[in-house]
Amino acid sequence: MRSFWLLLSLAFGFLGLIMSAPAAHAVEEPQWRLVYEDGPFAIRDYAPTVVAETRVSGERGAAINQGFRRLARFIFGGNEPNREIAMTAPVAQRPEGERIAMTAPVAQAASGESWVVTFYMPPGSRLEDMPRPLDDSVVLRQEAGRRVAVLRFSGLATQNNLARHAEELRRRIEARGDIAGGDVSYAFYNPPWTLPWARRNEVMIALRR
Questions:
Q1: Taking CA 99 as the corner, what is the angle to CA 98 and CA 100, rounded to the nearest 5 degrees?
Q2: Is-contact 46 101, C-beta < 8 A?
Q3: Is 194 helix (H, G, I), strand (E, B) or coil?
Q4: For residues 45, 124, 122 and 62, what is the CA-based torsion angle, rounded to 10 degrees?
Q5: Nearest Cα residue to 90 out of 129, 117, 108, 66
Q6: Rounded to whole angstroms, what are the CA distances from 173 to 42, 48, 168, 203, 208?
Q7: With CB atoms 3.0 to 4.6 Å apart as the test, which of 34, 37, 99, 163 could cross-link to 107 if both were Cys?
Q8: Which residues of the chain have pLDDT under 70?
Q9: How confident is the model over 101-158, as pLDDT tens digits?
Q10: CA-CA-CA-CA torsion for 156, 160, 165, 169, nearest 10 degrees?
């Protein structure tokens, strides 16, 4: 019986990897240049890009789900003139206006807090060419180029997991002598059915140049 459950778990694990791999690589990411890398820690220079954003109040997990649905409706035709826009990765989330010690990650999301959920538009997009969202809560804007410190990790995006890696990212930034100078964001790259150990999550903090 033990061998049966072991084989079953391995089968589901293999299926999860098969399903998650195409989804992780079939979509584009914002353009960036690697400046420094040490294992899961990296410094990247991101090119200017167009983003679609929406603000959602409430608990972090519920907020990103609601924000994702709004933004998905926009890129799948909820716009004028009913134009589909290619899906990209990651889906990003940051606390609204949250700044702690030159921008440190939030450690706990409480009910009533406000979050910004972001989709990146395909590389090469121009703000003036983007379709108009039919949902007034979806806003398009041009994001300037920026240098970002990133810490990559797998597992579920629990608040404890996010906070633990955010603290490690702060330590890495300080150890390099860099200075945080932008908003914290969490970045999620995989569909929800991806198994925890196959997931790619990132905690990101913009740096002063």
A1: 125
A2: no
A3: coil
A4: 60
A5: 117
A6: 10, 23, 9, 12, 11
A7: 163
A8: 1-26, 97-112
A9: 332 222 223 334 899 999 999 999 999 999 999 999 999 999 999 999 999 999 999 9
A10: 140
